[in-house]
Amino acid sequence: MGCCHADFAMVEGSDRGFTLGMPTFTFGAGVLAEAGPNAAELGLKRVALFTDRGLSGGEHVAKVKASLAASKVDAVVYDEVAIEPTDASLQAAVRFARESGADGYVSVGGGSVIDTCKAANLYATHPAEFMTYVNAPIGAGQRAPGPLKPHIACPTTSGTGSEVTGIAIFTLGSLNAKTGIIGRRLIPTIALVDPDVTRTLPANVVASTGFDCMSHALEATTARAFPRRLNPVQGLHRPVSQGANPFSDALATQALDAVGKYLVRAVRDATDVEARTEMMYAATLAGISFNASGCHLPHGLSYAVSGLTREWHIAGYPQGKTLVPHGMAVVLNNPSVWRHTAPVSPARHLHCATSLGADARGATPDDAGEVLAGRVIELMRAVDMPNGLSALGFGEADVDALAVGAEPQYRVIKNAPVDVGRDEITALFRAALRYW
């Protein structure tokens, strides 16, 4: 993305560099079977294996357990992870972790499982009142005071990228919106990214997590460039997410290219091994990218959508409670955001659009937001995503409440390329009610 490296010119008082953090990761068909040797090499004797009820009796968990047993690593299983975790479900997981006697952790599941395992490891290793580590200004935003125990992350969905990030997201009941815990020490020690797991994913899960992957890459590329972050701290004291940078640009571009080519194929045909493998790889690339640069408005707005949706169910996800899949909540805000942010960096928005497969021939800088929004809408329609927030039951009367819920998410919102306040956030939600 050479055309945009001028964006990284230093300004007075800015940070002069950026720090990258990621685990050692292995990508390839069948690598879940390497969980045991990796645990043994880390010196682990007894691990707490985190998963959810839907996966606990399945082949992926069985493969990991067999590998651990073959390497003489004892495993005690926690399968009570909540899909779309809450502060209450995280605290239940922490209690298990403290009582498990484990010297390390293995997570087998989607982002909810991996995020829950990160939080359990943090609070069990460095006990504290729950809000201590929760992002400011909602919580105290303190960093982990020391290293965590080893964590081997084994993702079973193709989108969250949680296996390579230092971020754990959950719904805070008192706020009725999502927030998170972020820190470099939360990054898993090892990630085993096995595209074989995607054979068993329902189409709706592939679509939702795929759009999460897409938005990670779009937000990483369009985020405020790292020299514009007036944060002079250095080295390990730099925040995990520091703004767009040349490294995150390169990985995000590759991820967007894969999403544009393979997302629709992966959703429509579970036997399309190439498409599902490429989406799994794109998810990891986008995860590394946004961990380094940070997300911004689409994710910041999505947290209020998830918390305030009153009645929503979708096939492929647990029934019995209202649940908006994270990637769905994120993509429903995408087009309105890109139309708003494109004027400040039209070259980056056009680059994202063409990487996703848009035909931008003849497009001018003034067209950038519409070209990118149009390509995202095209992909949404191709896999039957809801037509904006109105499809989830929101209307004009709800936009103020959505804005109130999103406004405290300044960790991500302030990473946007433009400054926004309550009025702009309200307008973005209003523009996201319906797209076609």
Entry keywords:
Dehydroquinate synthase-like, alpha domain, single chain, Rossmann fold, 2 domains, alpha/beta, two-stranded antiparallel ribbon, 16 helices, 9% strand, 436 residues, globular
What would your notes on this structure say?
α7 packs antiparallel against α8 and α14 crosses α16. The protein folds into two domains: 2-15 and 201-431, Dehydroquinate synthase-like - alpha domain (Dehydroquinate synthase-like, alpha domain, Up-down Bundle), CATH 1.20.1090; 30-193, Rossmann fold (3-Layer(aba) Sandwich). The mean pLDDT is 93. The chain is 43% helix and 9% strand. β6 (167-172) and β7 (177-182) form a beta hairpin. It starts with 23 loop residues before the first strand and ends in a 5-residue tail after the last helix. The protein has 436 residues and is an alpha/beta fold. The protein has a six-stranded parallel beta sheet, with helices on both faces.
Helix/strand-derived class?
alpha/beta
Output the CATH class name of the largest domain: Mainly Alpha
Distance between the termini: 32 Å
CATH topology of the largest domain: Dehydroquinate synthase-like, alpha domain
**Total helix count?**
16
The portion of residues forming beta strands comes to 5-15%
- Mean pLDDT level: 93
Taken from the alpha-carbon principal axes, the silhouette is globular
Largest sheet: 6 strands, parallel
Order of adjacent strands in the largest pleated sheet: 1-8-5-4-2-3
CATH architecture of the largest domain: Up-down Bundle
Radius of gyration: 20 Å
* Count of discrete structural domains: 2
Number of beta strands: 8
